[in-house]
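seq:
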Amino acid sequence: MRRALFILTVLLTALFGLPAAANAAPAPLGGGSILFNPAGGAGAQCTAAFAATDGPTGYLVAGPGCDTGFSTQLYSGANVLVGPVVGGAGNGYVVVQVTNTAAWELVGWIDAGDKYPIGGSVETPVGGQVCLLSRTTGVLCGTVVAKNQTVVFPWGTVTGVTRTDICAQPGSIAYVTGDQAQGVPFGGGSGICTSPGTSFFYPVNRILRDYGLTLLTG
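struct:
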């Protein structure tokens, strides 16, 4: 009898497009995903740079735009809960715990129009090439100019950041060298993007170390 009901369900699904299961599969969530804080107004938005884990729990490391001080709960997609900000506030980035695992599945690649798999986080030395993945300008490459810089931004002073000669624009996602994660953009910069400019990122390895996380690769 059970077998007959199963066969009937499959046939009805094929004929009439009925859902085979009530719950949809979790959507991918990782670098390039837009996060927003509905309590912080229209400007409370940031972009996830990388996904990470501490073993049982997943996290996103994102830029500072969601650090508003109003509500710590961040959302993505069509107003779907992701989880709370659990670290980084005031340092130029946020660490978001992904608690809504029924809706989201963390992935180890960055969506910047195309998929860019992340293979690790070997740090690029001063003088080495680094590239900025951006939703608006694609891939912009330049050079690591200096490390352990102190920079004053409109929202505060940040120490230990890396300076590049890449001109950052709105839509910036993450800094990488090949498939190696480098850092989280601060979302600003200077210069004309057809020539060298100046931009900064917070090194991802420092964030991973400070919060006991392991980069999710893919």
